[in-house]
Write a structure and sequence with these properties.
Blueprint lengths: L7 E4 L1 H18 L1 H20 L5 E3 L3 E9 L2 E8 L2 E9 L4 H23 L4
Parallel strand pairs: 1-5
Antiparallel strand pairs: 2-3, 3-4, 4-5
């Protein structure tokens, strides 16, 4: 049985900032050990979707073109094409996700286009 090649995984600056905010908030609320556990869970989830991109799910009610992966109480919001996954942002599952995505849509679109150009070697 042949194993599929892992996808390329990229995180936008927004996604990295989101993860930093989760770490800081968790440390303030519950202590450093819990914060580290949250980040370890996020890292494991990122590795899971890199190794198994089919775990990403389309959620047309949330956004027609993006894919999602739930990690604890957060959603990884991704753009996936071929064997490339771009984590755009990390949103708490209790938020009004469609509204939050609509608010940040222009910036997300610019980041996705820039990353796709870089991945194609065009800038």
């Amino acid at each position: 049985m042949s194993r599929q090649r892992a996808a390329q995984l990229h995180l936008t600056q927004r996604a990295l900032a989101d993860l930093q905010q989760i770490l800081e908030y968790s440390a303030q609320q519950w202590g450093r050990r819990v914060a580290d556990d949250h980040i370890t869970g996020m890292e494991a989830a990122l590795n899971r979707i890199r190794e198994n991109p089919e775990l990403l799910r389309a959620e047309p009610a949330l956004h027609p073109a993006l894919t999602f992966y739930r990690v604890q109480k957060h959603l990884l919001v991704c753009d996936s094409q071929d064997r490339s996954i771009i984590v755009l942002t990390v949103i708490h599952a209790t938020m009004d996700i469609p509204s939050r995505l609509a608010d940040i849509q222009p910036q997300l679109a610019m980041e996705v286009e820039l990353l796709h150009r870089q991945l194609r070697g065009g800038g």
